Automatic annotation (TrEMBL):
SUPFAM superfamilies: alpha/beta-Hydrolases
Signal peptide as annotated in the record: 1-19
Organism per entry: Nannocystis exedens
TM region(s), chain numbering: none
Presence of the UniProt keyword Chloroplast in the record: no
Pfam families, per the entry: PAF-AH_p_II (PF03403)
Protein name per its UniProtKB record: Alpha/beta hydrolase family protein
Location of the region described as Disordered in the Swiss-Prot/TrEMBL record: 17-85
Keywords: Hydrolase, Signal
InterPro entries per UniProt: AB_hydrolase_fold
Keyword Signal: yes
Length: 420
């Protein structure tokens, strides 16, 4: 009976609105945190980073028309100052990305941020251990050799670039059975282009809690509205673990994005967020702060039908845009389908092979297929479109002009609509 009730709630969370739709999220720093199973099976968690080989150079981000680097500055909104970024918003920016795991009230939150250029030299990149997103009794079932480690183009605890900013903030909400680093590529991309990005493991929605509820652990209540409110309040008055961004974050310029259930959770956040970006979810409501909405969907989504994004676009207030990716599934906006171990096994295969409790239910949300548009292409489209909106509204640039080239640049964009 407990399992039937838990499964009913599990699926309801994936198809609900407001507090939860479906979704997943990638994990955080190197030790601890687990991958999602609803939407996938990997996770992320807190803990000390398990790093990989040291690196001494930042990625080359100078391209095209831009002079990207540390030698010039460009103005932002209300007196902000930033390094120039590539005009092509699918490309990473000039900042190395720092990462820290912090506590905000009762939430474990990962923060990715623009770090001091050059401070990553000689440092090891972060590697996240997604097993910490499993229930405690299940974590030891997956060996290091079987684990799908999540490598990050980011570095633990680098000094924030205090010579620029203040930096706008992006809050990301994972989906059902997700975790904070589920969409790691997007978190790092936004931070590299001058945003402070926060993502939490949300109690009751987190992979660890939902799998636990299927395996004899008491169910954990969720309150995504409170979670979001706690993060917004923390940005307004950074303290404790978050004190390192005090004076460097522009708390008046916040965006929110969410995948699946996370996209539903941000639907009513327009009184706090100037930009809302639901992914594989629905539409949004009008709000006092809301200036722009970008709805992202996948035409082959087997969990949340793409028609939900189309109707969500129709009901959302302008200015708004809709981008639909052809041949992509529900997890196209996350890292989950691409996270595999050295044997080529994905999250679901690993969980099933190691008899992880609750793995049998992961298939309901593990919408991955070799026939789908490659993840790298979906990520590039997502980063191009999302960064264009974020930078135009929160950085006061002309980046939204990039939408004129969206479908020519990406033939995989089957549908693009805008109402401005």
């Amino acid at each position: 009976m407990r399992r039937l009730l838990a499964l009913t709630l599990f699926m309801a969370a994936c198809n609900g609105s407001g507090g939860a739709t479906t979704g997943t999220e990638a994990s955080t720093t190197t030790t601890g945190e687990t991958a999602a199973t609803a939407d996938t099976a990997a996770t992320a968690s807190t803990g000390a980073p398990t790093t990989t080989a040291p690196t001494t150079t930042a990625p080359d981000t100078s391209t095209g028309d831009d002079t990207t680097g540390t030698g010039a500055e460009v103005p932002g909104c209300a007196g902000g100052s930033f390094l120039p970024v590539p005009k092509d918003t699918s490309l990473p920016g000039p900042w190395p990305v720092g990462a820290r795991t912090v506590a905000i009230a009762d939430l474990t939150v990962e923060v990715w941020y623009p770090a001091e250029p050059g401070s990553e030299a000689g440092q090891e990149k972060i590697r996240y251990d997604i097993r910490t997103g499993l229930p405690d009794a299940e974590q030891g079932k997956v060996s290091d050799a079987d684990n799908p480690w999540q490598d990050c183009e980011c570095w633990q605890g680098l000094p924030l670039d205090a010579d620029h900013g203040p930096y706008p903030a992006v809050i990301f909400i994972h989906g059902t059975a997700g975790f904070r680093s589920q969409s790691l590529e997007h978190m790092v991309h936004w931070a590299s282009r001058g945003f402070i990005v926060l993502a939490a493991d949300h109690p009751g929605l987190w992979l660890k809690d939902l799998l636990g509820s299927l395996c004899g652990v008491p169910m954990v209540p969720q309150n995504l509205a409170d979670d979001i409110g706690q993060m917004v309040a923390a940005l307004a008055a950074p303290a404790g673990d978050l004190a390192f961004i005090a004076g460097h974050v522009d708390a008046a310029r916040i965006a929110m994005s969410g995948h699946s259930a996370g996209g539903g959770a941000i639907a009513g956040a327009g009184d706090s967020a100037r930009v809302l970006i639901p992914m594989a979810a629905g539409g949004v409501e009008a709000g006092a702060a809301l200036e722009s909405t970008l709805i992202l969907g996948a035409l082959s989504d087997q969990v949340v039908e793409y028609s939900g994004q189309q109707s969500g676009f129709a009901s959302s207030p302008a200015p708004k845009r809709l981008v639909g990716i052809d041949g992509a599934g529900h997890l196209a906006f996350s890292s989950l389908c691409s996270l595999k171990n050295t044997q080529g096994q994905d999250f679901l295969q690993i969980a099933q092979a190691n008899d992880v409790c609750g793995a049998q239910f992961a298939s309901f949300l593990f919408d991955c297929s070799p026939d789908y548009t490659p993840d790298a292409t979906s990520w590039e489209i997502t980063q191009y479109a999302s960064s264009a909106v974020l930078e135009s509204v929160l950085r006061c640039t002309d980046a939204a002009d990039n939408f004129a080239e969206l479908q020519a640049k990406f033939p995989e964009v089957a549908e693009f609509q805008e109402a401005l």
